[in-house]
Amino acid sequence: MSDFKTPPQDPQQFTATPESILREAQRLIENSGSLHDRIVSEIPPGDATFENVIVPFAQDENARLTSLRVLGFYQSVSLNAELREASRKSQNMLQEFALQYKQRRDLFVLIDATHVSERDVSQKRLDPESDHYVCTIRREFIKNGLNIAAEPDRKRFVEIQHRINDLTCAFSENAANASQSGIWFIPTELDGILTDQLSAMKRGDGDNENKLFASFVEHVGAVLRFANNPETRKRMYLGYENRCNENIPVFHELTTLRDESARLLGYLSHAAFVVEDKMARNTETVHSLLNRLRTGLLPGGLQEIKQLQGGKESAFGGKRGDLGWALLCVGYAVLWSKTACSEIHSRPSAYC
């Protein structure tokens, strides 16, 4: 055993409870808040440097984000509803905290002073990575409204950010709940689906006795590809596409608020605000790329649609029209008709 190295840290243990998740989130918030208060109280802007302002800020942020990802992991994988809810709440708490400290003018003054002094040509001494980090966190503070001059506009901006955070959490929660949904079918409606896939489906009782539950997460692909009954595919397709209608007004409000927020910061749109930090840098570059892709791909796309519509007509009869819920089923048929005929190719569903 002496030949083996000791790991630098113990493996992560996913044994949290709802109470421990919320306690840990609160501890992270209090620790970070205390650090920010100490930096502001002890360091005047004239003495701000990378070492005494940015380094402790970055180390604290790194530790907090590491724990944030662990706390947020439970909402995606836990079978316990209370644990998932606590996980989502912890994310909301930490996101609210991040929003609040990035609107602290006293903290921004120190970061801005560091940015100015460390980028002075006469004494610039930061490596490229450190310089990039200073510029990034300074830009994050600015994008949280600290450069908005008018007080009413700044107040409105803060209100918008808090509302966006609430809506984002509501959107995620609705989507998570919708992922648990699906449709009950009688077995004959699922003709064409492999037996082992059918046996994995939940069996109903009461009003759903003798029915099978096709989940939107686990079974949508199998139903749309392999179910022989077009009405079954139609019900599954429409159910899947409309599985989270409660997010429609949430999405609409988010879109409107993000646009208003970007305009308060001086951008023409939310897209211009977001893309500024990306490789494209501006929306004109993005539109140019999309137009080139559209021009190059459209002829081939139209040809494939024509082929798929022909496959729909051959497989199911009737007129050509919208592919809709027949798309995956027809697409699979067309795909496999192009391959060499073999035992595997003649029975594709058995190998998927």
Can you walk me through this structure?
With 352 residues, this protein is an all-alpha fold. It folds into 3 domains: 18-147, Glutathione S-transferase Yfyf (Class Pi), Chain A, domain 2; 182-241, no CATH class; 278-351, no CATH class. It has 14 helices and 3 strands. It has helices spanning 18-42, 50-77, 81-101, 105-118, 128-146, 151-178, 195-199, 220-226, 230-241, 247-264, 270-275, 283-316, 327-337, 343-346, and strands spanning 182-185, 202-203, 212-215. The protein has a 3-stranded antiparallel sheet, with helices on one face. Strand 2 and strand 3 form a beta hairpin. Residues 338-352 have low confidence and may be disordered.
Keywords:
Glutathione S-transferase Yfyf (Class Pi), Chain A, domain 2; 3 domains; 352 residues; 3-stranded antiparallel beta sheet; mainly alpha; 3% strand; disordered C terminus; 3 strands
